[in-house]
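User: Predict the complex.
Assistant: Input components as received:
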Amino acid sequence: MEQPTTARDGLAFYRAVQRGTLEVKASPRATSSLVEPCRLCRHVCETLGHVLNHCRSHASLWHGRHNDIQNRLVGAIATHGTVSVNRKVRGIASNLRPDLVIDTRQPDGSRSRFLIDVTIPMEHVGDARRTQAAFDRARHWKRVKYGPIALLLSASQRTRADALIVGSLGTWDPHNDPVLQQLGLETMLPQLRHALCLRALTWSAHIYARHLAMGKEKKR
Ligand SMILES: [Zn+2]
């Protein structure tokens, strides 16, 4: 797997997004007269959201971004419980594979199980309210998706379905905090927030740089 750009490159990319100086348009709401078709897949609008989250030319890099964030989380959880990664849930007749099935011991000694999907939606640049609404929708759909399995499992052990959400541009969803606290990661929260957000951002900077490079290559 290719390595993402450095943290420094990631932060430079972030500043360029905020200034609106990227070669592709940052806002998915930009009018069609301002937005060119994708230089790689010819999708009608080459927005930043398309490049970072939807252009199929970068599917392997999305997986790299997702798995890097997931692996960092798994590393943190490993000291507080057992984790199963991308497997069907044992004892349940369903083909769904949550990213993580985590078993932890709560402070009162009881055990809890969590079904967690790692999700990296695109932010609405410059609009925190719409970004949070997009994060809330993503979390809602993960709870809907795995809710029935969680309900079935709750017959034998308290089980919750939820998500870990980090924006493609490194925005932390504050609703991750109570999830991580219940996983016993409260003291690690500041480091985890920083590490996971930086990973999302550096991988996205890498995807963006790759997009431009592939576009140049295609022109030759
Ligand atoms: Zn494309």
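Helices lie at 7-19, 48-54, 59-77, 128-153, 176-182, 189-219.
Let me know if you want any component modeled separately.
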